[in-house]
């Protein structure tokens, strides 16, 4: 196999930009609101504005906050604005990161190191709701902090009845989500805060998805429980700007109640031959363009703009909730309070993943959840204009999946059903790793997660088992 070569001579800019544009031909159609995850898009004019702000600082580097004072100013103003929105106190401080995952990873590192220093904890654990974002399980693995799991109630909320008893000498933090990603439920933060405070354990709130919309929903008069720094036990919050902040990708925040906490996040190396080094978060070079774009978008939208977008988003969510409830055999999972929801099947004869396949055929980009199986909708303001069309296609998809039960055994329905229900989870993990890794094989690898290899004996047996389970409901 020959590797790709750099062009011997540089190419003309127009030619390159044209080719780049063509690369996007098969990308999800987010401009028309056909994607239900990954993208938070307003319109092309907004993207153009972001690009201008981004490009003005695309070479600037926030690595050393003392060097580019412009970036430090933007970072300070973004953090201070967030501290205000999230009802922080006078000492609330924080750092702009490159994304929600970086923010979550940093919280785990911070509390692990704090417990190590203050309480000599050598075998750390943290208490996570079952519905915690996958970034927290990544952090557990990366940083060697054992995840202890709070189960879900029958209605997919976090069951905190055992929380107090689960805290032990090695517990470095507790997590609550506002809202959680799988079903859009806000965890019982006030109760968790009281327990955390009584036990002297840090409580982080993952508001990566909620941080830039819940405050504006509240301003719009939506009745929400308190979940932010107003709860005394809350010690830190992560909130993304590149989701409902409508900023360019690569911008999130992590806020701490005070600098004493944030200090444990920082890294200092005084002996490096490259110079004395200090860094506030995971990245080395920090992208100035992302800071500038995030700062600019906050100034452009303001409270009025974010409230308007939150209102459209909530209207779209309400439309979807009502429309889904009206389709026989479907129900929304749990009680989502934020901008997202998931729905599943109430009828053993209706396979929700087969419905998902049908929606994809109708041109929607669909995200699937599991345990219970469902279809996920990360709803943005843009979806208000397509909600009716989506619901009509959904009704049609349900009718088709009902009329053709064999669809559950083919395509995505079969693959996702298998991945969700094979009881040997270790086997699923190694299979997913194999197939996923193929996408990174030298030369570009596979373009999809579809597995082309014929199933081995064990896999065939598992497929039969899953089909049998599915038939039994
Ligand atoms: C999106 C999300 C994250 C991770 O954020 P990324 O920006 O995708 O890294 C973490 N927690 C929650 C609740 C999220 O929705």
TrEMBL record:
MF terms in GO: transaminase activity
Keyword rRNA processing on entry: no
Cofactor: pyridoxal 5'-phosphate
One Pfam assignment: Pyridoxal_deC
N-terminal signal peptide: none
Keywords, comma-separated and alphabetical: Aminotransferase, Lyase, Pyridoxal phosphate, Transferase
InterPro entries in alphabetical order: GrpII_AminoAcid_Decarb, PyrdxlP-dep_de-COase, PyrdxlP-dep_Trfase, PyrdxlP-dep_Trfase_major, PyrdxlP-dep_Trfase_small
Family to which this protein belongs: Belongs to the group II decarboxylase family. Sphingosine-1-phosphate lyase subfamily.
Name under which the protein is recorded: Aspartate aminotransferase family protein
Protein source organism: Ruegeria haliotis
């Amino acid at each position: 196999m020959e590797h790709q070569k750099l062009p011997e001579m540089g190419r003309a800019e127009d030619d390159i930009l044209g080719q780049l544009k063509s690369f996007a031909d098969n990308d999800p159609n987010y401009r028309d609101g056909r994607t239900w995850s990954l993208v938070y898009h307003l319109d092309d004019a907004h993207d153009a504005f972001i690009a201008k702000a981004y490009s003005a600082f695309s070479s600037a580097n926030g690595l050393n906050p003392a060097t580019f004072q412009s970036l430090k100013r933007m970072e300070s103003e973004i953090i201070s604005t967030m501290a205000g929105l999230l009802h922080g106190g006078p000492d609330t401080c924080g750092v702009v990161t490159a994304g929600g995952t970086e923010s979550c990873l940093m919280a785990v590192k911070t509390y692990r190191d704090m417990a190590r220093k203050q309480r000599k904890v050598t075998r750390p654990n943290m208490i996570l709701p079952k519905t915690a974002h996958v970034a927290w399980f990544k952090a557990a693995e990366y940083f060697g902090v054992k995840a202890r799991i709070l189960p879900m109630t029958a209605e997919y909320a976090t069951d905190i009845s055992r929380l107090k008893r689960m805290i032990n000498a090695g517990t470095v933090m507790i997590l609550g989500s506002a809202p959680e990603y799988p079903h859009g439920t806000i965890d019982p933060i006030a109760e968790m805060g009281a327990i955390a405070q009584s036990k002297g354990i840090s409580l982080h709130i993952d508001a990566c998805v909620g941080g830039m919309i819940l405050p504006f929903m509240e301003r719009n008069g939506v009745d929400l429980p308190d979940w932010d720094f107003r709860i005394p036990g809350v010690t830190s919050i992560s909130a993304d700007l590149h989701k409902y902040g409508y900023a360019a990708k690569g911008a999130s925040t992590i806020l701490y109640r005070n600098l004493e906490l944030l200090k444990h996040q920082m890294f200092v190396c005084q002996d490096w031959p490259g110079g004395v080094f200090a860094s506030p978060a995971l990245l080395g070079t920090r992208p100035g363009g992302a800071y500038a774009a995030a700062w600019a978008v906050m100034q452009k939208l303001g409270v009025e703009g974010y409230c308007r977008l939150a209102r459209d988003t909530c209207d779209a969510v309400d439309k979807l909730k009502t429309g889904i409830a009206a389709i026989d055999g479907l129900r929304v999972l749990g009680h989502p309070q934020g901008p997202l929801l998931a729905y599943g099947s109430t009828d053993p004869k209706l396979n929700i993943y087969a419905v998902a396949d049908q929606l994809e055929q109708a041109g929607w980009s669909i995200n699937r959840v599991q345990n219970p199986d469902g279809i996920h909708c990360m709803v943005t303001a843009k979806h208000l204009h397509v909600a009716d069309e989506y619901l009509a296609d959904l009704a049609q998809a349900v009718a088709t999946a009902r009329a053709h039960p064999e669809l559950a055994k083919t395509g995505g329905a079969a693959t996702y059903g298998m991945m969700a229900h094979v009881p040997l989870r270790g086997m699923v993990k190694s299979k997913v790793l194999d197939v996923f890794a193929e996408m990174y094989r030298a030369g570009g690898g596979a373009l999809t997660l579809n597995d082309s290899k014929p199933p081995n004996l064990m896999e065939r047996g598992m497929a039969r088992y899953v089909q049998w389970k599915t038939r039994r409901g």
